[in-house]
Amino acid sequence: MEDRRREARHRVYYGGVLTFNARCSTLACVVRNFNNRGARVEFDGTALLPDRIDVTIEWRGLSRTARMVWRDHAAAGLAFVDEQDSDVIPLEWARVLRERERANRKLKSRIEQLLSER
What is the pTM of this model? Predict the structure, then answer.
């Protein structure tokens, strides 16, 4: 098979997570090769994945939207979507947002508790 990539990919062995279905569904994967334009991922068993998914590779601090270029029963080739076309935020921002949302829920719960004690 002819390799049509613009730049070579580096062989890697990273753990990753594929997220889809409005971030309600996740699938653990292994990233087998990687560059700034895309990656090859492998996963256990057959998975029905949509053509657009979010990819998180924590080791690299990367969270990007990708489109499916090819797939078979246990692997897929992904091309990362340009940053301007993506609504994915940096991984560190996502962690801060999650922590702030957690703190917000605690504060709301405490307010409800105080109001019910009146």
Answer: 0.62
